[in-house]
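**User:**
Make up any protein.

**Assistant:**
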Amino acid sequence: MFLPPDTVPDTYMELSDADLLDRMETGDLVIDPLDNPDLQIQPASIDVRLGNEFLKFNPQNVTAVNPVEDNPEDYMDRIVIDDDDSFIVHPGDFVLGSTVEWVEVPNDLIGFVNGRSTFGRLAIVIHATAGLLDPGWKGNVTLEISNLGCIPVELEPGMRIAQLTFTELKSECERPYGSGRGSKYQNQTGVQSARSDHATDSDIGMQSQLETPLKSETDGNEDGQGVQVDIEDIGLE
């Protein structure tokens, strides 16, 4: 249903090319280096390029990986190629790469990593599940690259391999991604493997770091009695 402009609700929105330029000019949204804005800035996204460093599992080194107890990088080979070289992703391969660009997301935006159509039509997937850039996040974007097709695909450093989109939140988040909430991937540089989930809320003293105490809510049950619900079970990023 079409709504006249003066009746459109004041909610979140996707940023257009003009919005992206404005936010980068003010400095709160950082994508650097942006060497060719005319080429990289799309109507509602920004193309980011592939770096020259990769992490690939070596199946001969491990029978299984426990994401809580193990350090997955112990079972991976780190591969660095020259800028004029190429990296071949074979059918069934899974490899971690990263963007050339350093990204900083302000507290009132949330970012999304998407593949480009050229690579999608070659059966190259750019992220497995972690396509979200939280408000406050900073770093090079790790790409979870896989080949779902039946032929090898050659990737070269500097290729525009992915695109970032950004959505404006209805309000600025109170607890952005970062050290204040024990975030594991803040300020990551280059390609970053999975980090073990050893820490718990009590390990990092999460509640003591909050500027305001966690709220409690009271819900009514069928008997009309109040049930106290403590909002304290917040998972780590």
